[in-house]
Give the backbone structure.
Amino acid sequence: MSLALAARSTLIAPSATLAMGAEAKRLKAQGLEVLDFALGEPDFATPPNIEAAAIRAMRAGQTHYTPPAGIPELRQAVAALYTQQHGLSTDPAQVVISNGAKHSIHNALMAVCGPGDEVIIPAPYWVSYSDLVKLTGATPVVIPTTEDHGFKLSPERFLKAVTPRTRLLMLNSPSNPTGVVYDRIELSALAEAVLQTEVGVLSDEIYEQLTFGDAQPTCFATLHPALAERTITISGVSKTYAMTGWRIGWAVAPAPVAKFMGDLQSQETSNPCSISQWAALEAITGPQDSVAMMKAEFQKRRDYVLERIERLPGVTCPPPGGAFYAFLNVSAHLNRTLGGTVVSDSTAFCRAALSQARVALVMGSAFGAEGYVRLSFATDLRTLERGFDALERFLHESVVRAPL
Ligand SMILES: Cc1ncc(COP(=O)(O)O)c(C=O)c1O
């Protein structure tokens, strides 16, 4: 008799971004060149001062269990960051350090959601949100937003979706996958709507330091004094400091929620990696010049990507205000012949792009937005140039056969 899986196993699918990345790696392992724009991680090395702090920590014997919610030094530093830089008075007891922001989101959802609850998620959304909600037994209530409305949730649509079961609204600005950044006025209007209800907010601000041009990040919890007690803010070092592999994220939450998240972690994973915590401490308290350098580089790539998208036949893209993704509208190419097959949806589009043009993208359906594909520009300009050359040739085929 084989071991039966729990009913829960049907609730989640493997992360689509990681799955596309894995397919690209499989082709690479066969010796084929793949221009990989699927993965969402900075291509830069972790800055040397951070690596040095990790080495120092190891040599100093910081290689044992730490308190489950994180070392006091790091919780204190995160609290100081929010208090001093974001203007959100934060006590270290409100800070929980976890194994990456994804884990912080999981713990936060476990803390406040359960069977019978509903969680509002504006789409396009980051791939993991709806599966992480389902794991708690709660129901994701996805509200589609459109390119015409800047992929932003309006207060009216939020209020319309609220029911007596709604526990949380999940926000993500700057957004993965669209790069959309809500401005302060738009977020304030949403905050006012939230305050008319009993709904809490999970604000995922992991890309807060990566904004371009006039776009400015906003810490949602600062928008009204009453928000702090119903908002869980998520962030971490993965994207800002090119530290995806170190697995350090955090949540700033009302103290009782933070206490539960720490307790949960004590039963689940004990603590985040001790060495990574010391490295993260250096990241946020040490010199910040590498952040400025990486940001400037992302800005260059973003401008280049927008220039090249204009030349792609039948493709449009709302200019990303932050993060490192372009969300390409490829709907004009659906139900046409690409790479010898009729491409009916964004998954088929990505498959064709990978097999014919050797370009790895992620299907919009994984983000709750059919007709789009996500291109990550967390890769060097030369690779981007070659990738766009390949995409241009690939899309040309469909246009030559039947003009758009
Ligand atoms: C919107 C968003 N939130 C959270 C995460 C998770 O970050 P971490 O690698 O720290 O778990 C990601 C990573 O892709 C993300 O894009």
Observations:
- The chain has twelve helices and 14 strands.
- Residues 289-310 form the longest helix (22 residues).
